[in-house]
Fold:
Amino acid sequence: MVLFRLASLLEGLSYLVILCVTLGLISRDFVYVLGMGHGVLFMVYVALSFYAAHKMRWSLITWLLIFLAALVPFAFIGVELFLRRQVQGQQRQVQ
Structure:
């Protein structure tokens, strides 16, 4: 779960960096490098989301919402809050 949370954070931040290029805050010279990095992080995010969904026994709807959050800027913050609650819920069940 820690790896998925990290991947979610990095993927969301890389998406925001790409948007900074679109807004003209970062030079277009870096589009290829930033795009490649974001693409790799997106694939890692999707793969780890499958693993997390299986491990946490999420419904298909929950997984789809987590997947769609990768397409919306700043939605990674909501995903992080959701994952934090999931982890805290698991810890309470163990105790």
Q: What stands out?
A: The chain has a mean pLDDT of 93.
